[in-house]
C-alpha cells in the first residue's frame, strides 16, 4: 500500500510540475532548437573530421543519429543531411564553421534550460562558463563520432581477423548494421547520463538519475513506434502541409521526444523530493 501511495505522489508531483512550469512550451523550444542545431553541428563536425582525414565521418554520423528514428521520419532529413555534408569545405578555421560550432552549442543550452526547470534549480554559473561547457560538449560529441567512424571503418577487417583466429566467436559477431544499432544505443545512453550529470545546476547522486533515464529510453522506444504507426496508418501530412510535410513530421517527432526527455528529469526530481520528505519524517 505504501508503495502505491509513493508512486501516486511521485507521478502527481512530476506531471503536475511539468504542466505548471511550462513543460509543454519547453518541449517545443527544445524540439525546434535541436532541429536548428543539428545541421550546424554536423557541418562543423564533418568539416573538422575531413580536416583530420576521417572522410567516412559523415556517413557514420548520419547512421548513429538517424538509425534509431522511425524510417518515415528519418529518411527525408537524412537525405538532406547527406546532401549538405557531401559539399566539399575547406573553411575549417574561417568564421563560417566556427559560427556553426557556436550555433550547435545552442542545442546544448536548450537542454540545460529544460533540465534546470525539471530539477527545479536556478542557474548560478556564469554565461561564459555555460557557453564554454556547451561548446566543449559539441567538441566531445564530434570526437566521439570521429572515434566511432574510424572503428566502423576497421570493424569488418577486425571481425575477419577475429573469426579467422577464433572460430567460436563467429556466431556473436553479427553484421555491421547490428554494430551500428548497438553503438547508437550506447551513444544515446551515455549522452543521457552526461547531460543529466553536468548540464543542470547543482549535483545529484548518480543512482538518482537512473529512474528518469530508464523512463526516457523506454518511453522513447514506445513513443517512436506509436508515432511511426500513426504516420503510416492514419496521418496524411502531405495533404495538409504539401512540401513542408517532412519537416513538420520531424518537428512533431522531436516534440514528442523532447516532452519525454523533460518528463524524465521531472521524474528524477519528484523521486528526490519524495525521498527528502520521507527522510524528514521521524520514525
TrEMBL record:
GO terms for cellular component: plasma membrane. The chain crosses the membrane at residues 30-52, 92-115, 135-158, 178-199, 206-228, 240-263. Pfam families: Virul_fac_BrkB. It is found in: Cell membrane. It is a multi-pass membrane protein. Keywords: Cell membrane, Membrane, Transmembrane, Transmembrane helix. It comes from the Bacteria. This is YihY/virulence factor BrkB family protein. The lineage of its organism: Bacteria, Pseudomonadati, Pseudomonadota, Alphaproteobacteria, Hyphomicrobiales.
Amino acid at each position: 500500500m505504501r508503495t502505491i501511495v509513493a508512486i501516486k505522489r511521485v507521478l502527481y508531483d512530476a506531471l503536475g510540475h511539468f504542466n505548471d512550469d511550462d513543460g509543454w512550451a519547453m518541449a517545443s523550444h527544445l524540439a525546434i532548437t535541436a532541429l536548428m542545431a543539428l545541421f550546424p553541428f554536423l557541418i562543423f563536425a564533418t568539416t573538422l573530421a575531413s580536416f583530420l582525414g576521417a572522410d567516412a565521418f559523415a556517413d557514420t554520423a548520419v547512421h548513429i543519429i538517424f538509425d534509431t528514428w522511425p524510417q518515415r521520419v528519418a529518411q527525408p532529413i537524412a537525405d538532406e543531411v547527406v546532401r549538405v555534408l557531401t559539399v566539399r569545405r575547406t573553411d575549417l578555421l574561417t568564421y563560417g564553421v566556427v559560427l556553426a560550432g557556436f550555433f550547435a552549442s545552442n542545442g546544448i543550452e536548450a537542454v540545460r534550460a529544460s533540465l534546470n526547470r525539471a530539477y527545479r534549480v536556478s542557474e548560478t554559473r556564469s554565461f561564459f562558463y555555460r557557453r564554454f561547457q556547451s561548446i566543449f560538449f559539441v567538441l566531445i560529441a564530434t570526437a566521439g563520432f570521429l572515434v566511432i567512424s574510424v572503428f566502423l571503418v576497421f570493424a569488418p577487417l577486425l571481425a575477419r581477423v577475429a573469426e579467422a583466429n577464433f572460430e567460436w566467436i563467429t556466431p556473436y559477431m553479427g553484421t555491421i548494421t547490428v554494430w551500428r544499432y548497438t553503438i547508437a544505443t550506447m551513444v544515446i545512453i551515455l549522452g543521457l547520463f552526461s547531460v543529466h550529470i553536468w548540464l543542470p545546476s547543482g549535483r545529484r547522486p548518480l543512482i538518482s538519475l537512473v529512474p528518469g533515464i530508464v523512463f526516457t529510453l523506454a518511453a522513447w522506444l514506445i513513443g517512436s513506434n506509436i508515432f511511426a504507426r500513426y504516420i503510416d496508418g492514419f496521418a496524411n501530412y502531405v495533404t495538409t502541409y504539401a512540401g513542408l510535410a517532412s519537416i513538420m513530421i520531424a518537428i512533431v517527432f522531436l516534440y514528442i521526444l523532447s516532452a519525454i526527455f523533460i518528463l524524465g528529469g521531472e521524474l528524477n526530481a519528484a523521486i528526490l523530493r519524495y525521498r527528502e520528505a520521507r527522510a524528514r519524517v521521524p520514525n
